[in-house]
Design a protein that fits this description.
The chain has helices at about 1-50, 80-115, 120-130, 135-150, 205-230, 235-240, 245-275, 290-300, 305-340; strands spanning about 165, 170, 175, 185, 190, 195, 200. A hairpin with a 2-residue loop joins strand 5 and strand 6 (about 195). It is flat and about 80 Å long. It is mostly helical. The strands form 3 sheets. It has a 3-stranded antiparallel β-sheet. It folds into 2 domains: about 1-50; about 80-170 and about 205-340, Orthogonal Bundle (MetI-like fold), CATH 1.10.3720.10.
């Protein structure tokens, strides 16, 4: 009987410890929530005392400023809400393109760094060392300044027929949908005044930001790829070579699939860093979310609301990207487990 009571007493200890842990967590959450509420009430009181409006009613007012031409049309008569949405689209566009290009370039650099050809390995190493050890802001200013050395629109470079390159941007022909046959026509840019009209264009700010984010992040991803490849046992490559596989097929079908389990987690962190580093666009005048948020809070005076919205957007994008990369990493691990 005493043994049975002793065992029941021992079994109750984990439940008691778990209950205490839950209670402490609830208490800590209540303290944090109370602290945040106190800050919010104090901030609201200070705003009322200074006659500063609060809330998000400003989103429905006309912005009164222009935004450079982009994927979404915008005029000064549009609302602040649309202006912030345009900034989000601009940030999302450059981040998505930067992730794709940096991944492709990073894989090439990581493989080239391990090349048996000395010249290729030396060039890749030099690129990685220069890009990784140079501040990203300095690189953005370099690319933007380099673009500004291009000629004026009347003397624009024409690398291809119908393509014009000048300090105002890159102008290329673009397809245009029509309501009658032929359904698609090609609209070509034409010199008009101090610039070009028609076709599609890439602004110097967008090009400089994309180049800087891509080349900087690609250098970091290249080192991650190199480390992942070196972590794969050499016996795997030797066994594949004994079966008669070429170097490219060994890398593609044997080495990289195993290295992905090591490469993906740190690469996901670099993707998140690229999204956050896009906020440096304000230094070169690209109308990203932070730049438009800064203009909005300067005109409305509602800094807390504007900055809060920007923080919520970046948090949502980062969490979504992190969830997607974690799901992809879990799929890779499951597939690797079945292969093993």
């Amino acid at each position: 009987m005493s043994i049975r009571l002793g065992l029941s007493h021992i079994g109750s200890r984990p439940r008691t410890a778990r209950a205490h842990a839950i209670a402490w967590q609830i208490l800590a959450g209540a303290v944090v929530a109370g602290f945040i509420a106190a800050i919010a009430f104090q901030a609201a009181a200070n705003l009322r005392a200074r006659g500063i409006a609060s809330g998000f009613d400003f989103l429905d007012r006309a912005a009164g400023f222009e935004i450079a031409r982009g994927p979404i049309d915008f005029s000064s008569r549009d609302t602040y809400a649309r202006a912030l949405f345009v900034g989000f689209i601009n940030t999302f566009r450059v981040s998505l393109l930067g992730i794709a290009l940096a991944t492709a370039l990073g894989v090439v650099l990581g493989v080239a760094r391990l090349s048996s050809v000395w010249v290729i390995a030396a060039i890749a190493k030099g690129y990685l060392e220069v890009m990784r050890n140079t501040p990203l802001l300095l690189q953005l200013l370099f690319w933007y300044s380099l673009w500004q050395t291009l000629p004026a629109p009347p003397d624009a470079l024409t690398p291809l027929p119908g393509v014009f390159l000048c300090f105002r941007g890159l102008f290329v022909p673009s397809p245009v949908w029509q309501t009658d046959y032929p359904w698609i026509s090609i609209e070509r840019p034409a010199l008009a005044g101090f610039g070009f009209q028609g076709g599609a264009s890439v602004s110097p700010e967008f090009a400089a930001l994309l180049a800087g984010l891509t080349m900087y992040t690609a250098a970091l991803i290249g080192e991650i790829v190199r480390g992942g490849i070196l972590a794969v046992d050499k016996g795997q490559s030797e066994a594949a070579a004994a079966l008669g596989l070429s170097r490219i097929r060994i890398l593609r079908h044997v080495v990289l699939p195993q290295a992905l389990r090591i490469i993906i987690p740190p690469t996901a962190s670099q993707f998140l860093n690229l999204v956050k580093n896009s906020t440096l666009a304000v230094a070169i005048g690209y109308p990203d979310l932070i730049s438009i948020t800064n203009t909005t809070l300067n005109q409305t005076g509602q800094a807390i609301e504007a900055i809060g919205l920007a923080m919520a957007v970046y948090l949502a994008v980062s969490v979504g990207l992190s969830v997607a990369m974690n799901a992809y990493n879990a799929a890779i691990l499951r597939r690797g487990g079945r292969t093993t």
